What we know:
This protein is mainly β.
Amino acid sequence: QVQLVESGGGLVQAGDSLRLSCAASGRTFSMYAMGWFRQAPGKERECVAAITWSGGSTYYADSVKDRFTISRDNAKNTGYLQMNSLKSADTAAYYCAAQDRNQGSFWLRQARAYDYWGQGSQVTVSS
């Protein structure tokens, strides 16, 4: 089992930056990849970014490319999502998730491929 705890959400203005953190504990040695997903009211959950724990592969949704950066600190078992130039459209609950096996690059952005989920962190961007 892997436990994920997120932090760093909040209320900001358009154009501001936020960094979300996701601290992993438990069987962290088994983690293959970490993803960040978001869900706005009335919308489906979408993957905004994902990274393999080795750092060899990353994925970004088109809507966040060049604004968001995903990273991880293996020594701290922590993943990060740096969000710059935030827009009102980025308002959502953000979730980190981890998968513990290599299923291929396609599955990095598929929610059903993830085995563990954090509790969610609200990001609200006012315009």
